[in-house]
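Please complete every field before forwarding. Incomplete forms are returned to the sender.

SECTION A: IDENTIFIERS
Entry label: holo-519
Bound molecule: fe (ii) ion
Molecule representation: SMILES string

SECTION B: INPUTS
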Amino acid sequence: MTEPLRPGLGRRSFLGLTGAGAASLALPSLETPAWASPRFPSDPFSLGVASGDPLPDGVVLWTRIAPNPLAEDGLGGVAQPHQQIPVRWEMSRDESFGARSIVRRGVASATPDLGHSVHVEVDGLDPHREYWYRFRVGNDESPVGRTRTAPALGARPSSMAFAFASCQNYPAGFYTAHAHLAEEDLDLVVFLGDYIYNGPGQGAIGRGYLPAHEVETLPDYRIRLGQVKSDADLQAAHAAFPWVVTFDDHEVANNWASDDVDPDVPVERFLARRANAFQAYYEHMPVRQSQRPVGPDMRIHRRLTFGDLLDLYVLDTRQYRSDQVRQDRRADPTRTMLGDDQEGWLRQAVAGPTARWNVLAQQVFFSQRDFTAGPDQGFNDDAWDNYLVARNRLRDHLAAVGTSNPVVLTGDVHMNYVCDIKADFDDPSSRTVATELVGTSISSQGDAAPNPVGDQRQLHENPHIKFVNRDRGYVRNIVTPTEWTTDFRAVDYVSRPGAPIRTLASFVIANGQPGAVPV
Ligand SMILES: [Fe+2]
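SECTION C: PREDICTED COMPLEX
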């Protein structure tokens, strides 16, 4: 619901609108009653602000009116829960929000059916430019967020910096990594899933999950997301950069696959749960209307393009996959990871035309990972290894169509890895056709537990794996037309706040030469 800036209003500050200007600002017509003069006993912007999915001319702005995010409706009985709440937003070329700096403004409606969340799809912006944004409801003003549009289609940006992260189990550790992430100089953050966990975990650091049971209902998921998003470090990372998000399993339930979570749970019951999870997820993420779920279905796979430098294919390896099977059935050719529609969409997209770097932002381990010492092999049945034919089909397609510089980004495993994606994983001398970068968790599993014997075994059994590490943190990437530099950023502990950040290791991928090499 964007509103082009009218010249008469452009001379007024945001604060000026609260006086006489506010009364004269026409609100959009609303189907249900609007709460015209909302008053809150506590900060309605307790969950902060966010932006996401940048285009060359626009970006999504997000907030949620939640003075009591741990109440079922976020409002906590303090307000008119069945009314819509008009939320003003504005976007500025600089932090001053001065009259000449504001470029767009409007009024969005925070509605009860979406937990009073707001998703504003701003358009009409300049490409490849920083902007600042903020919201206002009643007399309350939100924190200021900073965002950035994508380069114009066909533009030739000289570099792009982005980080990817995943797995922020709240009871397991403090979000110190997010505090450091917010201080980086980035264009974008990509989040690969496990934004929340579904279980009742209470941990040992005073960050026990609410509600204190396995989440299943819409209020359950709202409270869980509200609790996690109350974290100041996470809010800082959202306010600093646009994010591109996808989910993994724990946003819904552990290791779910399509409509199946457990043989004992009827499909209808799981789909009702999935609908609750998706609705609450949508309500809390800076994604577009095209990602809004319909019942248990949510299209999260999508493509974002950053000039001629980088194409980002955000994937969904949960919603359409075949169920996990025992290892002796992993080569069943009928089994799928992406589902026919998403796989077809991806195959067509990577066949071109594309940008120079083609990035698959996805969840589970793509390369072969044999855990069993000696000639026998043992694999993770939740990863692409358990979907052998689908994995090899995608890998072989990338090679056959000559996709430019394919790089697979992975979360899920709470460890850092660098892998050569081989034409034949069982033949170390076969061609390297793509690169996989696996990022550790923000907090999941708590403080790192070194396992040098296990790490050595993995490296020995899997010669295509170049790097293994168990620290907490995130992965920073600086991409230019000629090379991609990756820095594995780590904090030494998450069991208490305040850990400094350091770079554990750096790797470079040269344009046209798949496989990352240490620097
Ligand atoms: Fe995880």
